[in-house]
């Protein structure tokens, strides 16, 4: 047990369960893309672990890209706009674009991002999310490929953080309330 695990209340999704579901999701994507090339865009930072597992399981040819966005205006204004901290480097015009995200929560970040990227005229744009918190949704958005529906609990691990920590855990766990109530 690594020292940070003392802050974890319980494992929500085990390493084995994640591996099984990611493999299933890759098969769903294979069936959809049928060998066409796809730009896989990892949304930093939380999706890094999911992205690196997923890319090794799909059979269609891929280009890697990375994007970093911060959502804002989600409070009372709920504008759902996204500030780009790092943009894609690939020109997505006429290409299949698959956004790889760790969690869909309010949906503000992905809703704004999809609107923005659609204006660049990709051939197709799809969203895959490992985790989905439907009870938190503000925007009318669903992932085209979705891993697990989860309850509204504070989860970390497999890329997800609290205050930049716990991303390295190989499973998705629930943080002890004492950690964020300090
Ligand atoms: C998280 C997550 C999504 C967003 C989801 O990112 O990776 O991008 O929040 O929330 P929403 O659906 O309410 O918009 P975060 O800002 O925590 O950055 P990180 O990926 O670097 O941890």
Tags for this model:
alpha/beta; six-stranded mixed β-sheet; three-stranded antiparallel β-sheet; 23% helix; globular; binds 1-O-pyrophosphono-5-O-phosphono-alpha-D-ribofuranose
Written description of the protein model:
It is a single chain. By secondary structure, the protein is an alpha/beta fold. Helix content is 23%, strand content 32%. It has helices spanning 15-33, 48-54, 108-118, 177-180, and strands spanning 8-13, 38-44, 62-72, 81-86, 96-104, 124-132, 145-149, 155-156, 172-175. The strands form two sheets. A six-stranded mixed sheet has the order 4-3-2-5-6-7. Strand 5 (96-104), helix 3 and strand 6 form a beta-alpha-beta unit. Residues 74-78 have low confidence and may be disordered. Bound molecules: 1-O-pyrophosphono-5-O-phosphono-alpha-D-ribofuranose. 1-O-pyrophosphono-5-O-phosphono-alpha-D-ribofuranose (PRP) is lined by residues 43-46, 70-71, 101-109, 161.
- Uncertain runs are 74-78
Shape: globular
- Summing up helix and strand content along with how strands pair, one would put the structural category as alpha/beta
Strand content: 25-35%
Q: In whole angstroms, how far apart are the ends?
A: 23 Å
Structure annotation, total helices:
4
What average pLDDT do the residues reach? 93
The sequence of SSEs as H and E is EHEHEEEHEEEEH
The biggest sheet, with number of strands, parallel, antiparallel or mixed sense and barrel status, is: 6 strands, mixed
Query: What is the radius of gyration computed over CA atoms, rounded to a whole number of angstroms?
Result: 16 Å
Strand line-up across the major sheet: 4-3-2-5-6-7
Number of extended strands: 9
Q: Which bin fits the share of residues in helices?
A: 10-25%
Bound ions, cofactors and other small molecules, one mention each = 1-O-pyrophosphono-5-O-phosphono-alpha-D-ribofuranose
């Amino acid at each position: 047990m690594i020292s940070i695990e003392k802050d974890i209340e319980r494992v929500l999704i085990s390493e084995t369960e994640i591996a099984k579901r990611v493999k299933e999701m890759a098969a769903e994507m294979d069936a959809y893309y049928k060998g066409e090339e796809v730009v896989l865009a990892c949304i930093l930072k939380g999706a890094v672990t999911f992205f690196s597992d997923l890319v090794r399981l799909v059979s269609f040819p891929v280009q890697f890209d990375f994007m970093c966005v911060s959502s804002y205006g989600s409070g009372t204004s709920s504008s759902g706009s996204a500030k780009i901290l790092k943009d894609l480097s690939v020109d997505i015009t006429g290409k299949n674009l698959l956004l790889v995200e760790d969690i869909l929560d309010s949906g503000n970040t992905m809703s704004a991002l999809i609107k923005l990227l659609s204006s660049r005229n990709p051939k197709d744009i799809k969203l895959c999310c490992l985790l989905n918190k439907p009870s938190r949704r503000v925007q009318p958005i669903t992932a085209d490929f979705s891993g697990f529906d989860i309850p509204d609990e504070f989860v970390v691990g497999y890329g997800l953080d609290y205050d930049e920590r716990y991303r390295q855990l190989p499973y998705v766990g629930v943080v002890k309330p004492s950690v964020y109530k300090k």
